Amino acid sequence: MITVLLVLAWVFSLLGAGMSFVVSLAGGMKAIPSLSVEEAAVAFPLPILAIVCAGAAYVMGARLEAPPSLWRVLPPVAIALLSIAFVVLVYLEQPSRR
C-alpha cells in the first residue's frame, strides 16, 4: 500500500507540473489579457493530492515501524510545491497585475 501511495504521489506531482506549465503558457499569452484566479486554480488539486499521498505513505510507514526513506518521499513533494509556486508566480507576474 505504501508503494502504491508513492507511485500515486509521483503521478500526481508530474501531472500537476504539466498542468502548471500549461497554465503558465496561458498566462503568458497575449490573447488572454489576464489570468483569473479560477483559471490559475485549475493546477492546484493535483500537486495537493501528491503531497497528501506522499504524507500518507510516510505516516502509514511510521505506524508500521518501517517508514519509507525521505529520499523516496521528498521528490514528489518538492515537485508539487514547485508547481504550486510556479503557478502563483505566473499569476502574480502578469502584465495586467503590475
Structure description:
The protein has about 100 residues and is mainly alpha-helical. The protein contains 4 helices and no strands. Helix 3 packs antiparallel against helix 4 (about 70-90). The longest helix is centred in the first third of the chain and has 27 residues, at about 1-30.
Distance between the termini: 47 Å
Estimate percent helicity.
Answer: over 70%
Tally of helical runs = 4
What global shape is seen?
Answer: elongated
Q: What is the average per-residue confidence, as pLDDT, rounded to a whole number?
A: 86
Percent of residues in beta strands: under 5%
Sheet with the most strands, sense and barrel status: none
Structural class: mainly alpha
* Poorly predicted runs: none
Topology diagram in text:
Blueprint: H1 2-28, H2 37-40, H3 45-63, H4 70-92
Main attributes of the structure:
98 residues, mainly alpha, 4 helices, 0% strand
Provide a compact summary of the structure.
The protein is an all-alpha fold and 98 residues long. It has helices at residues 2-28, 37-40, 45-63, 70-92.
